[in-house]
Design a protein that fits this description.
Distance between the termini: 22 Å
Largest sheet: 5 strands, antiparallel
Number of domains: 1
Strand order of the largest sheet: 4-3-2-1-5
Helix content: under 10%
CATH class: Mainly Beta
Order of helices and strands: HEEEEE
Length: 73
């Protein structure tokens, strides 16, 4: 399975995203993804060392800044 197909299979599920140059992780429901791996998350929350920092709501993440995308439980 290609990486973009894998990410598209996560639409509608909770994911954890690690961003380039950031110490915190973002967790939210994946609403959509495009061919550039730009991500639209709803109910996004920022975590640092597994501690909740703040609620972000709906956010769009630019694909070239994403390091890691993984399912979140």
């Amino acid at each position: 399975m290609l990486p973009n197909q894998m990410v598209k299979s996560l639409i509608g599920k909770m994911i954890k995203v690690e961003m380039k140059g950031e110490e915190s992780d973002l967790v939210g429901k994946l609403e959509s993804v495009d061919d550039y791996m730009n991500l639209h998350l709803s109910n996004a929350v920022e975590y640092k060392n597994d501690e909740k920092i703040r609620n972000l709501g709906h956010i769009v993440l630019r694909g070239n800044n994403v390091i890691l995308i993984q399912p979140y439980e």
